[in-house]
Amino acid sequence: MSTLENKTVVVIGGSSGIGFAVALASLQSFASPVIIASSSEERVKKAVERLKAHNLPGVIRGEVVDATNSASIKDLIGRLGEVDHIVWTSGNKVNAHFPDFEPEMGRAAFDVRFWGPFTVAQTAKIRPGGSLVLTMGPSLIRPQPTMSVWASVTGALDGLIRGLAVDLAPIRVNAVSPGGVDTEFFDDLPSNTKDVLLKNYSDKLLIKRFGQPEEIAMAYIFLMKCGYITGQRIDVDGGIALA
Ligand SMILES: NC(=O)c1ccc[n+]([C@@H]2O[C@H](COP(=O)([O-])OP(=O)(O)OC[C@H]3O[C@@H](n4cnc5c(N)ncnc54)[C@H](OP(=O)(O)O)[C@@H]3O)[C@@H](O)[C@H]2O)c1
């Protein structure tokens, strides 16, 4: 049976939200070492402490990487050496609501979510049997008003996973496409704005609520463990396409 036992799992974006849940679920699946990386040294340190507090078997480590900078990503890949699975959940907060933003803002969304994992794919040393799992979003199949940039980023990622599945074969490349997930991503919003956003979005779903990070993490674990799936996307989005 396919397992993550003693597999090296790297989660770039693992200091919070979905990435943190993937790191925890990997430890619960006996992966070791589990390495989380993101841009803030302090957030990485705190996340490593939170993971260790679960007292699970497995080595946990933190790394700092600035996903807007390809040299920083290449440095990280060099420090990691050979690994089994890399999960990319890093995502910066970008205010790019159509039409009122400068092109640089839109490019910033691509820098972290598209060019970041692209650089990883060019440089990572993934062992046979391993995989790369990227992160998309529901704008590909159901763009909300003003979200053209996000529809474009996710569309580019949809192409990227299939292109990389061919270029990196037999290393597998897949993606998870989460819907609305209650994470630290929304923490900067005033609490009443966040509540309204969650309520309005939830009303549009078949499953009338936001997802929890642990629910989304299960799809990443499946994509790492199943050795016969590549070039695919799993939508874990509360049924937004059918609502
Ligand atoms: N939550 C949702 O509803 C939802 C829905 C669909 C898609 N997504 C996508 O899923 C991904 C994860 O979202 P989330 O909700 O888990 O968000 P989150 O809790 O804010 O996590 C984002 C992660 O990205 C890291 N990050 C941000 N900028 C970075 C940079 N320049 N370099 C390296 N790491 C960076 C953050 O750590 P540092 O701050 O330490 O860098 C953090 O670990 C994002 O791409 C998001 O757009 C989220």
Automatic annotation (TrEMBL):
SUPFAM superfamilies the record matches: NAD(P)-binding Rossmann-fold domains (SSF51735)
Protein's UniProt keywords contain NADP: yes
Family according to the record: Belongs to the short-chain dehydrogenases/reductases (SDR) family.
Keywords: NADP, Oxidoreductase
Provenance organism: Pholiota conissans
PANTHER family: DIHYDROANTICAPSIN 7-DEHYDROGENASE (PTHR43477)
Name this polypeptide is given: Short-chain dehydrogenase/reductase SDR
GO molecular function, a single term: oxidoreductase activity
